[in-house]
Amino acid sequence: MEVFRIAIPLIFSRLGDLTASLIYFSFVGHFIVDSLSSASFALASISFLTVVGFGFFSTTLLKVAGSYDLNTSGIESEIIISIRFAILFGVLIIGAIFFTSTITLNSFAGLGQTEEFKALLTLSLSMPAIYLQITIFNFFNGVRKPQYEVIFTWLFNFSLLVACAILITMESGKTSSKFILIYSSLRCIFSALALFFLNLKIQQHIDNFLHTRCLPKKEYINYTIRGLPIALCLGGESFLFLMLSIISKNLSDSSLSAYQASLHFISIIYMISIGVGNATGIVAARYYTAMDIQSIIKTYTQGITLGLIILTPLLIGCFFLNEYISIIYTSDAPTRKLIENNIHISIPFLVFEFVYIVTRMTLRSMEDFWIPTLLTILILNIFGIVFSVSLLSLYDYTVQSIFLALVLCSFILMLFLLWRLKSISKKKTITTDQQNKFKTCTNKTRTEK
Length: 449
Fold this sequence. Notes:
The chain is 87% helix and 0% strand. With 449 residues, it is an all-alpha fold. The protein has 2 domains: 16-215, no CATH class; 229-435, no CATH class. The model has no long low-confidence stretch (mean pLDDT 88).
């Protein structure tokens, strides 16, 4: 099964990305404790920008995956533009953060703000590399070579662990600035190596590929228009969780800690949804090019089945082992109790979330971008906040109400996206049948003549 073959390495890649952030948090949290707040703020900001980048550049993944012939000007332009945008946007982010931090530090001389902006500015140096990494492996994943990203991700994690081990052995000099600079430098080095590897391998798929080829402005505009809805969609989801963390903070310190810990654990399970969703979209994109709607539905069914097979034992484990999960994050009894309850509540949320992610990715492979995006923003960002505040006011003034709101919103979004997929599939099937009948009639008429 092709979905399975692609999904497994993609899941390991996404888990590798999450492991990198875990190494980052663990090192700072254990060896540079005083800088944990500023380092966390920096990573949270960069993670948000990374998620937006994943959305914006995902159009390249779907276009490459859906192409039967990569030796076309459209595919070559797609890759060139994505690489140029990756570097440009990364540099612009560095410039924007530098400009903002300069103004802020001149206006406010607080030590905490100084540390936060220094950490953010240093970590932002990795943004061109992160965006470049996304675009490079969008190509490789699109041509059914997801194993390259797995190797890249885990080699980076190994190198980061080695760097941490070296810093640990040093008696002095373990500062957040030094560690974050090393982290950003490793990102840049690995992305440069990935770009070199792309130049070696891309000639096997695209003849006479040149990064320096001149392209009309219209192609850059079209790329931006196609990437915008998915960037807004993923950025909106990330922004929702940021808003919910602010709401949790206003409840109590233990509520915020429980929310962040629960969200981190959920994110691990979320990587399975992303991996299976991307794999389903990659396979479905090729069938959509051929307008084979039945094969798209079959692929979608395979993706849902595969994901549920993987998720079921994990969710059963979440139900029975929630106490062991909570102790990983904290020894504080009240916070642990909140985490355990959150995990139980999140089990249906993880199921609904998985289904809507795979459905939404399938719709994107069918070039349906704006409607799924608008539905996601409306139901998660708007209804999600409304439901959270309502449940906190009318039901239970604890962080559990936030997770109940997530369950409700994810269920509603899942239903709307399933309706959208059914509607689009039916419409495309009717159109395809009409075209086939017209071709048959035309060929029959010609034969009779």
